[in-house]
Every structure is written in structure tokens, then in C-alpha cells.
Amino acid sequence: MIETINKLYFTNLQMRNALIQIEDKLVHSGWMPDVIMGVNRGGVIPGVYLSHRINRPHVPVDVRLRDHTSSHNLDPLYKAIDKNQKILIIDDINDTGATFKHIKFNCDSNNNVRYASIINNKPSPFKVDYWGYEIDKDQNPQWVVFPWEEWDK
Q1: How many domains does the chain have?
Q2: Which of 124, 122, 85, 81 is nearest to 101 (CA)?
Q3: Cα separations in angstroms, 60 against 1, 15, 74, 138
Q4: CB of 140 within 8 A of CB of 6?
Q5: So what's the pLDDT on residue 66?
Q6: Does residue 150 fall inside a structural domain?
Q7: Residues 6+ apart with CB under 8 A from 57
Q8: pLDDT above 60: residue 152
Q9: What is the domain extent for residue 74?
């Protein structure tokens, strides 16, 4: 039996709208980051967009759990923590929460670190602080395809 994967093609316009939603939640929370850290690779593009939108610097952090062969580089995160900066970690999707859990585990749950995702999968065991859109993969299993993943579509 061949399983068909339902794909949700996310657009640049939807990404921009999600970032506006995240910005609005940041403003209403009364907490603004000193630096935005986009998770390499999927969080870098939204991280750069958001950094321009709210006029904060962007620094990538490298955590790639899917291929299990890459080494991670959280040095920029450690440097920002040492400077007592408020840090927003952003990724394209909070799917299983594994990437965010890895980062949180390795930064000792620092109170100056918050988490955002363009899309939040509601059943994820990791709860992000800010998100643009929510989906429920338990109710509607789908693979989200972001514009930078298949930009020729």
C-alpha cells in the first residue's frame, strides 16, 4: 500500500502574514527581543524578514535534527546569553518540537529565550511562545512545503 502525503503549500504572502501575527503577539506581550535567531535552514528566511520588520539583528543558529549527520552550532546563542540579551528563536514549523526542545535543553531554560514558529502544530509537546498559524496534524496529517523549499512551484 502506498501512502499519499497531503501537502500544504505555504506561500510567501502567508509567511509575511504569519510574521505580522508574531510581531503583534510580541508587541502585546510587552516583550521584545534584542536579537532574533533563525534556526538553520527553515527559520533563517523568516528570521531575516522579522529582523527587518522589528529592526533587530538576526543571527542564525545551526540545529538540524532530521538528517542526524550535521553537527550543531549554538555558539551564537551562548554568546547572546552571556551578554544577557533577550533572544527570540524562530523556525518555520514547530512540528514535533524536537528542534526547540534541543535548543532549550542546551541553554538551561534561560528566561531571556523565547520561541516562535511560522506554523505551530497544536499537538506538539513543545509549546512556542509566538506563532503565525496553527495546524493540527493529528486531525489533518499533512506535510507543509514552504516557498524556499520548492520555489519553482
Answers
A1: 1
A2: 124
A3: 41, 18, 9, 30
A4: yes
A5: 62
A6: no
A7: 34, 35, 36, 51
A8: yes
A9: 7-145
Asked if residue 88 is part of any domain, the answer here is: yes
Q: Which three cell numbers stand for residue 140?
A: 489533518
Per-residue CA distances from 13 to 8, 53, 57, 115, 150 (Å): 14, 15, 23, 22, 15
Q: Specify the pairing of strand 113-121 against strand 7-9.
A: unpaired
* pTM for this prediction: 0.90
69 backbone dihedrals φ, ψ, rounded to 5°: -115, -15
| Helices then strands, each counted (H, E), the chain | 4, 7
Q: What is the CATH number of the domain that holds 43?
A: 3.40.50.2020
Exposure pattern of 109-146 as b/e (b: 16+ CB <10 Å)? eeebbbbbbbbbbeebebebbbbbbebebeeeeeebeb
Q: Residue 6: exposed, middle, or buried by beta-carbon count in 10 A (0-12, 13-18, 19+)?
A: exposed
Are 8 and 137 contacting, i.e. CB atoms less than 8 angstroms apart? no
pLDDT in tens, 67-97: 555 567 787 888 888 888 999 999 999 999 9
